[in-house]
Amino acid sequence: MDLKATVSSNPVRTAIFPVAGLGTRFLPATKATPKELLPVLDTPLIQFAIDEARAAGIERMVFVSHPSKDAIERYVREDEELETTLRERGKARLADMLHENALCETEMQVRFVMQPEPLGLGHAVLCAKDDVLPGPVAIILPDDLILGEPGCVQEMIDAYDPSKAGHMVATMEVDEDEVKSYGVLDVTGTDGPLILAKGMVEKPEPADAPSRHAVVGRYVLDASIFDALDGLPPGAGGEIQLTDAIAAGADSIGLCGFRFSGTRYDCGSKQGMLAATMAYAAGDASYASVLSGTQPTLATAAE
């Protein structure tokens, strides 16, 4: 495919993947393995994110990583030597699967940029500024796994209307005692799946939360987000908050939440990762006996 000759009608051409975090909640597993490569069954979290972006017609994927996490780039890019070795050993099906999963430069534009210091999600997005294509950008947090068809990013792009709101964030309603873990919308009304808002508050106390519409890890943002982030002072937790930059443009750009149809799993937590694994396994009949508890234990099998 000639990328230069490709003309896309997709208004969102770039997806940014912030993958520089240390994954401390999964230590010691993440001491050597980036959290984005932790698998749900046999599929790494980053693969779900890549597949979601592909299905949405994204042309360029920008990974904002850390120098210590070079394994992500090794996973993402095509490994022709490994594929050849597998084919020589009669494992063509595995080689085909790896080829389909990998991002080949002749079919997809791929960029890796570094975030050397953990200065916040907003800073990670700003690091990608010089590598995005013109127009609005999608941001995908791989440890927020959203299972469903169509994918969340595709749904958001289909619903995106800059005349209503230039900044769109994926949202879900959470319990009152959970709002302090999220950015929360200050809601003004609804328009179909869109939740119109005049601002956002990062991790409010329940008594101060303007709503229970919490922002989760998918965004479609007007390109002005980069100017808003540049020079933004640190916010909650002493980090440069993407939420603050989005809120700053609410009056001029417009802001809305989007109620997606899929099921979201917080795979940044052990509980969420387990729940995602069980849900994903439930869709495969070969795991039915394990999930039902009828699979023989090692002790039983040995008797």
Architecture overview:
With 303 residues, the protein is α/β, with parallel strands linked by helices. The chain has one domain: Spore Coat Polysaccharide Biosynthesis Protein SpsA, Chain A. The chain has eleven helices and 13 strands. The chain has a nine-stranded mixed beta sheet, with helices on both faces. A two-stranded antiparallel ribbon has the order 2-3. The protein has a two-stranded antiparallel ribbon with strand order 7-13. The longest helix is centred in the last third of the chain and has 13 residues.
Q: How do you describe this structure in short?
A:
The protein contains 11 helices and 13 strands.
Count the helices. How many? 11
The termini sit apart by 58 Å
CATH topology: Spore Coat Polysaccharide Biosynthesis Protein SpsA, Chain A
The SS-based structural class is: alpha/beta
Quaternary status? single chain
Task: Tell me the series of helices and strands, N- to C-terminal.
Answer: EEEHEHHHEHEEHEEEEHHEEHHH
- According to CATH, the homologous superfamily is Spore Coat Polysaccharide Biosynthesis Protein SpsA, Chain A
CATH class: Alpha Beta
Enumerate the spans where pLDDT stays under 50 for 5 or more consecutive residues.
1-7
Whole-number mean pLDDT: 90
Catalytic activity: alpha-D-glucose 1-phosphate + UTP + H(+) = UDP-alpha-D-glucose + diphosphate
Family: Belongs to the UDPGP type 2 family.
InterPro entries: GalU_uridylyltTrfase_bac/arc, NTP_transferase_dom, Nucleotide-diphossugar_trans
Organism: Roseivivax halotolerans
